Amino acid sequence: MMGLVTEETGVAQAVLVCAGLADAGVRFWLAGGWGVDALAGRQTRSHRDLDLLVDAADEAVTLEVLGDLGYVVETDWRPVRVELARRAGDGGGWVDVHPVVFDADGNGVQAGLDDTEFHYPAAIFTTGRLGGIVVGCVSAAAQRTAHEGYAHRPQDEHDLAVLETLDTAD
Fold this sequence. Notes:
- The chain is 32% helix and 31% strand.
- It has helices spanning 11-23, 32-40, 59-68, 140-146, 154-168; strands at 28-31, 50-55, 71-77, 81-86, 94-102, 108-111, 117-120, 125-130, 133-138.
- Strands 1, 2, 3, 4, 5, 6 and 7 form a seven-stranded mixed sheet that branches.
- The N and C termini lie far apart (47 Å).
- Helix 2 (32-40) packs parallel to helix 5 (154-168).
- It is α+β, with helices and mostly antiparallel strands.
- A hairpin with a 2-residue loop joins strand 8 (125-130) and strand 9 (133-138).
């Protein structure tokens, strides 16, 4: 789409998205780099996008909130994921929404490509801090598991190093 940017998603934009979703009553958790940073309580590196696990029951509200913040759908692979981009005039940035279906015990399942599934035990859902606000995020153990089975990029190595410091902090 014309006029969309590929700039990083900064902490102010990430907080704006999280606050908007929280105000709308959306259940969400940060994953990926911002999820690591939420666990660390601070931004530790630049990020291309904000990865969100969202309760699938809140998907329509999530997309409405993001639309109100100037995001438009760029990649629609539902039910696997929806990637949205924000126009340059609105500050730019990207959000990658991953709908998760929850059972009565709080365990989640996300659809994957080629009929695969990602399973999220209820125990991995925790909280962290981002830009001074409390946000949902996935646990350090779940973040480490998400980094298994592929060749790491520099940002992956960075995130794993941050997770290691969290393990050694008291």
